[in-house]
Design brief:
- This protein has 364 residues and is α+β, with helices and mostly antiparallel strands.
- It is 39% helix and 21% strand.
- It is built from 13 helices and 13 strands.
- The strands form three sheets. Strands 3, 4, 5, 6, 7, 8, 12 and 13 form an eight-stranded mixed sheet that branches.
- The chain is globular, with a radius of gyration of 20 Å.
């Protein structure tokens, strides 16, 4: 078994890095229950908080083991079983035990696409030489088809490709990623004036989506005002924000970022229960009162990080308000690279933002 001309058994292992992502507009329209009928559109960007995955040969006679800083795979413990099945599906990898380890620049369940980034990095480690589109599709198939999770492809495609782009999903499931022409003013605003603050709440995106959908279906069955068609109309509205956000990014109209984020959030909160939380609303209101232009909760909702757009003069006040609210900031910048190989050598310097490995357990 070789990789790049040398024997895997003679090396400390293989590894890959994949960036986390922030969805700016259109999130939710990539979910199969919507995109299969209407298509989907998302503007998403990769950030420099990354997931690192490493596969290293374990001693013969031992079992494949998993370790990370929390003791569970990003997003959902069921991915333990997914990793085991992925390894077993590749005989050249699965015929011997491995230590599978991961670290991340942000906690799991925070709305930054950690599960998708993890699987993209795992795909890159297992399948060297594949292009980003292939790795993204493989990772999405593992999560959606093999694990049966209610997720869309934006996480894996944004992570694999990096940068900032328009992700289009056709009704047949084909995904196209178009990099945006990033205006210098927009690039500077993303790095300096879009701020992330942690609500402290963790959630599973697939479960939040499922709960919102079930709530909508129950209201429709009861003949109330919230018919299932209402959810479709909300998603149509969310999708309609993609074009103006793309134009704002490419034109450098950064004053429009905040209002567009707020408009996206107002529509998303109408999708069902569990998307908004008192804590998220408290933090968003605090940021707006301190001078932010607008914002939203990133990801499917239910917890994670609030993203706000803040003019230069308001940044000190917003940061002070979030410090008083005990909402830690996650500093970030746009990540232009997508998934890439990582140096797996033991003792290699840790990259910025990574926690050390911790709990180790057997894979199911």
């Amino acid at each position: 078994m070789t990789r790049d001309g040398y024997s895997i058994d003679d090396t400390p292992g293989v590894g890959a890095l994949a960036p986390l992502r922030i969805s700016l507009a259109g999130g939710g329209t990539d979910l199969p229950d919507y995109s299969a009928e209407f298509g989907g559109d998302v503007v998403a960007m990769a950030i420099d908080a990354e997931v690192r995955v490493r596969l290293a040969p374990a001693a013969k006679g031992t079992e494949t083991r998993w370790s990370d800083r929390t003791g569970d795979l990003p997003g959902d413990p069921r991915l333990n079983e997914l990793v085991a099945s992925v390894l077993s599906a590749h005989p050249e990898w699965g015929r011997r035990p491995w230590v599978v380890s991961s670290t991340s620049g942000a906690r799991a369940g925070a709305g930054l696409g950690s599960s998708g980034a993890f699987l993209v990095a795992l795909a890159a480690a297992l399948l060297p030489g594949r292009d980003p589109g292939e790795l993204a599709r493989t990772a999405y198939d593992w999560e959606h088809r093999q694990a049966g999770r209610m997720v869309g492809p934006q996480d894996s495609f944004a992570s694999a490709h990096g940068g900032i782009g328009h992700i289009s999903i056709a009704t047949d499931g084909k995904v196209d990623v178009s990099p945006l022409s990033l205006h210098p003013r927009s690039a500077a605003w993303i790095d300096d004036n879009l701020l992330l603050f942690d609500t402290g709440n963790t959630r599973d995106a697939a479960r939040v989506v499922a709960a919102a959908k079930q709530d909508d279906e129950r209201r429709g069955a009861a003949g109330g005002s919230g018919l299932p068609g209402r959810r479709i109309e909300q998603l149509h509205g969310i999708r309609a924000l993609v074009a103006p956000f793309r134009e704002a990014i490419e034109d450098g109209a950064v004053e429009r970022f905040g209002p567009l984020l707020t408009a996206n959030w107002d529509l998303k909160t109408g999708l069902g229960r569990g998307i908004s939380t008192p804590r998220a609303e408290e933090l968003l209101a605090g940021c707006l009162a301190a001078g932010a232009d607008g914002g939203k909760l990133v990801g499917a909702g239910g917890g994670g990080y609030v993203l706000v757009s803040v003019p230069d003069e308001a940044r000190p006040a917003v940061r002070a308000a979030m410090a008083r609210a005990r909402a830690p900031e996650l500093p970030f910048r746009l990540s232009r690279p997508g998934v890439r190989a990582d140096d797996p050598t033991p003792g290699a310097p840790a990259r910025r933002g990574r926690a050390p490995l911790a709990v180790e357990k057997e894979l199911s």
